[in-house]
Specification:
Blueprint: E1 9-14, E2 17-20, H1 31-40, E3 45-50, H2 51-54, E4 58-60, E5 65-68, H3 72-82, E6 86-90, H4 97-110, E7 115-119, H5 121-125, H6 127-131, E8 138-139
Helix pairs in contact: 3-4
């Protein structure tokens, strides 16, 4: 399914959050991607993007939700510059999965060979649903 290759660059993304209307915006430390970066930094080059902390961009989404954090265009530009072999994303809550889906679809437009991996509580509880998204290669 996937050709074996050396992993030289990993891009870890704490994605924008998808918030219900009138919800207080809170930025939390991206501990999961930080721990992963600390574990692999001696083996490969790693870049982290904390989308909610790096941008206060906000965009309306469906059903009175909003996208809060770096816009998709900025995420795309960072990934294009990084040229990673793998993009790892955090998905703690079900409400964020629509954002994850959009980001993974955009990653595959950049380069279909970039592996997309999503970790967190949501893919742990909903693995079949998450993996039904064609742009998502693995969950952890």
């Amino acid at each position: 399914m996937f050709a074996q290759r050396k992993i030289e660059k990993v891009f870890l993304l704490f994605p924008p959050v998808r918030l219900p209307a009138e919800t207080m915006k809170v930025v939390i430390p991206p501990l999961g991607v930080s721990y992963i970066a600390a574990m692999i930094r001696n083996e490969t080059r790693v870049e982290i993007m904390d989308a909610p902390a790096e941008s206060d961009y906000e965009e309306e989404m469906e059903n009175r939700f909003s996208w809060y954090g770096a816009p998709l265009s900025e995420i795309r530009a960072r990934i294009e510059r990084a040229k990673p072999d793998i993009v790892g994303l955090t998905c703690i809550f079900s409400s964020v999965f629509p954002v994850i889906r959009k980001v993974c679809q955009e990653i595959k437009k950049i380069d279909p060979s970039i592996l997309t991996i999503v970790g967190g509580t949501y893919p742990s509880f909903m693995p079949e649903y998450c993996l039904s998204e064609p742009s998502l290669d693995f969950i952890s």
